[in-house]
Amino acid sequence: MNRLKIYGMMMLGAMLWLTSCTSEDATKEVAPQEAIAISFGCNYDDEEEDITKNTTRAGYEGAMNTEDLYATGFGVMASVTAGDEAPYDNKPNLMYNQEVSFTFVGDLEELLDPDDSELGVKRGYWSYQPVKYWPTDLTHCYISAYAPYVEPADLKDLPADATGIVGISTNNEAPYITYRRCDNPENVVDLLWYYEEPGSIPAEGKMNMKMRHALARLAINVKVESLPANTKVLVDSITLIGTMTKTAKLVLNDETVDGDNHYPVWCALDPPDTEDRTIVIDNEDNNPVSYGIIDSQIRYIPGMPYVWQPAGLSTTAQNALSMGDRQGYIYLIPVGALELTVKVKYYKWMSGDANPTEGTKVFASTTLVSSLKGNTPYVLNITLSDI
């Protein structure tokens, strides 16, 4: 009997700790002593080390880390109302898409030393212009941020096939980011977000912010069951077929909180922008229609310049998607359900066989997740049995 075992697994996504590094002397130069400047900073929390190394970078190929945010910067939206006024007037009246950028100070190689116990303290400082000051009445204060930073003018003439951040709200509407997903893992732009409602001026004007991942992340693992002795199975390709959200809006002035977990709020476009997608993960290097390449430990293609892999699939789940020297993922906009048909093409070789035999398993469409959530890693575990 063919069986597909699928498990949805959620965990808190990698976080970014933001602490102020703004110079105190610089603040005194531009404001009276009694005024408290709004300042920001940015550090990456390495407690989730595996996620830190394996998420996409904001605007760059590879793994997200603090250095990448130093390069991209982040944008801030802020609105303040006082007294009994409406909690939010839909206009960022304090900061609109304020770019916050990083300036390095000191020896760069020394500052980036991963063994530095004070990593992030002596690196430099975050700054923006013009400097804004905390209102004395914070009855209603809403601060949100996103990364990587984009300039609205740069979004006016984007090509039709542009992906990543493709739109941003104006300064007279509730803040949001319009994002379009990409099926090329090397070009995926990660999207980070932050939202908070400070009820009073933070100590020394410093914002302690945690930026979180706004997308959902899907990992794929494969294993086998009930194999005869002296048999090896290697995967040729994995195909995922389903309807996925192509473009949607990330709301920047709201979030969903469940215990210690924080989830972004996404809104579908009107009409919704979805597409029927066929995502192929195969063994072809530099295949423009392939999402990625099958991990070398579980693949074999006759005629291709790959040696026979002695390990092959095992009864323990193995990562199926390789991104060079790290695990690969499929990134999804968390709007709606995730329903997929899964096809696995494989080769089986038994001791004494001259050549491997080819086989395909098709698992009918099933709902993997009834409602996707951002800031959440999921795992698709595929079990091949009786082959």
Whole-Å distance between the termini? 9 Å
Largest sheet geometry: 8 strands, antiparallel
Give the neighbour order of strands across the main sheet. 2-1-10-9-6-3-4-5
Low-confidence stretches: 1-33, 43-64, 116-122, 304-308
Q: What order do the SSEs take from the amino end to the carboxyl end, as H and E?
A: EHEHHEEHEEEEEEEEEEEEEEEE
Features:
387 residues; mainly beta; 8-stranded antiparallel beta sheet; 4 helices; elongated
What does the model show?
- By secondary structure, this protein is mainly beta.
- It folds into two domains: 15-215, no CATH class; 218-385, no CATH class.
- Helices cover 6% and strands 42% of the residues.
- It is built from four helices and 20 strands.
- The chain has an eight-stranded antiparallel sheet. Strands 7, 8, 12, 13, 14, 16, 18 and 19 form an eight-stranded mixed sheet that branches. Strands 11, 15, 17 and 20 form a four-stranded mixed sheet that branches.
- Strand 18 and strand 19 (357-369) form a beta hairpin.
- The longest helix has 7 residues, at 24-30.
Which helices and strands appear, and what pairs or packs with what?
Blueprint: E1 15-18, H1 24-30, E2 43-44, H2 49-54, H3 66-72, E3 74-81, E4 95-104, H4 108-111, E5 124-127, E6 140-147, E7 164-168, E8 176-180, E9 192-196, E10 209-213, E11 216-225, E12 231-258, E13 261-282, E14 292-294, E15 318-319, E16 321-322, E17 330-332, E18 338-350, E19 357-369, E20 376-385
Parallel strand pairs: 11-20, 13-14
Antiparallel strand pairs: 1-2, 1-10, 3-4, 3-6, 4-5, 6-9, 7-8, 8-12, 9-10, 11-15, 11-17, 12-13, 12-18, 14-16, 18-19
